[in-house]
Design a protein that fits this description.
This is Transposase DNA-binding domain protein. With about 60 residues, the chain is mainly α. The protein has one helix and no strands. The longest helix is centred in the last third of the chain and has 26 residues, at about 30-55.
């Protein structure tokens, strides 16, 4: 429950996750795997944009 002037948000059913480095087996901190997640999404976005730019000159049939 939120107090006056506060905004509460949440997602029911979320559970904590345990993420390990696949190379070392060391458990990652939540901040570390969040950073890796956003880095992966950024890389995927850049690749997608590059494919779009490369295919811009292809004419449709």
């Amino acid at each position: 429950m939120s107090g006056r002037g506060e905004i509460a948000c949440g997602a029911p059913g979320l559970e904590p996750v345990l993420v390990r480095d696949s190379g070392t087996g060391v458990e990652l901190d939540p901040e570390e795997y969040e950073a890796l997640f956003w880095s992966h999404l950024d890389h995927a976005r850049r690749c997608q944009n590059m494919m779009i730019r490369m295919n811009d000159d292809i004419t449709t049939r």
